[in-house]
Structure formats: C-alpha cells, structure tokens
Amino acid sequence: LTSGELEVLYRNNHYAARVVDLLPDESTRRGFTVAVEGDAPTSNPFESDFVRLGLMPKLNQADKWARLYGGAALILGIDDGRDPSEPVDFDSIQSVDFAYVVDRWSLTTGPLETNPESSGFGLPATYTITYTDLTTEDSIIGMIVHASRMIRFEGVELPPSLRDDQDYWGDP
C-alpha cells in the first residue's frame, strides 16, 4: 500500500488504527524504571530531560509511525560541536537540545555504512530530511543527519533483499 492508502486506512478504519496504536500506547503508558545490577530499581534519572524534550509522547508517535509506514526516526539535536551530518562525538556532548519525529517518507537515505564493526553496518550512514509542502506540493530538502544522531523505529522486519527495496526500512 502507498503511504496515502495507509493513512486513509488508519484514519477511516477503527480496527486498523487500533492495530497500529495498541502496542505503542501500552509500551509508553507507565514510563519506565532504571535497574542497575545489585541495586533496587529507581525512577528514571533522566526524567526531567524526558519531560523537557517531550520524549515519551515522541517515542509513542515514532513507534506508531513505524507500525503505520514501516519506519520512522526520532532525530536528536545533540550539541557536540559537530555538524549534524557528522557522527556524534560522545566524549564532547554538551546537551540534547531538541527531539522530533519524522516518518520514513521524510528521510532520503544516503550512502551505506560499510564498516563491518559498526552497529549500523549495512544501513544508511546518513539521511537527508525532506518535507513536502502540501500547499504547493514542493519538496523542501533539509539538512543531512548522521545515523548516530537518530533513533530508528522499524516496522515489520524484512529479509535483506526485500529491505533494500524498501529503502532499508521494514514493512507496515
């Protein structure tokens, strides 16, 4: 199905919407706790950052869009002194300034990660965020974002040959 057909189905069919929404709503309903081996579970030590960035609703939205479209991403505004197109320098992170959700159709894949030691091996190393202005139907090409600055949410896992056909995303 096309993204438009999926949206019509989601909007007009209660059962389709329920299938998409049920697991993300349940998984983000109660938040989470952090457990360190040997210690009692504690509340989320990053709770104030989660609230400031609105992460729980955004995690919920990204999961829903991954289930609806086959993929979505949470883009993180990580301030590490580097350009967003470059990998995150984890030793230089000063802050996370923003987080926003994009669906897979708003991301154009860049070159693949070819380092077999990388956790993203075989996936795009960068993405270009692209939006379509619905009033003019013009595409607005935005910034290039390195994969380390985003959290991917995938739909139904596909075998490698089919995944290539889906621009390295899953199925709805």
Features:
alpha+beta; globular; 172 residues; 5 helices; three-stranded antiparallel beta sheet; 31% helix; 8 strands
Description:
The chain has 172 residues and is α+β, with helices and mostly antiparallel strands. The chain is built from 5 helices and 8 strands. It has a 3-stranded antiparallel sheet, with helices on one face. A hairpin with a 7-residue loop joins strand 1 and strand 2. Helix 1 packs across helix 2 (14-28) and helix 2 runs antiparallel to helix 4 (55-69).
Distance between the termini: 9 Å
Tally the helices: 5
The quaternary state of the protein chains shown equals: single chain
Low-pLDDT regions? none
Biggest sheet: strands side by side, in what order? 4-3-8
Q: Helix- and strand-based class? A: alpha+beta
Q: Estimate the global geometry from the Cα principal axes.
A: globular
- Name the helix and strand elements from N-terminus to C-terminus, one letter apiece: HHEEHHEEEEEEH
Percentage beta strand: 25-35%
Number of strands: 8
What is the typical, i.e. mean, pLDDT? Answer: 88
Radius of gyration: 17 Å
Approximately how much helix is present in the residues? 25-40%
Tell me about the biggest sheet? Answer: 3 strands, antiparallel
Short description:
This protein is of the alpha+beta class. Helix content is 31%, strand content 27%. The mean pLDDT is 88.
How would you summarize the topology of this molecule?
Elements (H helix, E strand, L loop, with lengths): L2 H10 L1 H15 L4 E2 L7 E2 L3 H7 L1 H15 L1 E9 L15 E9 L3 E3 L16 E8 L4 E9 L3 E5 L5 H6 L7
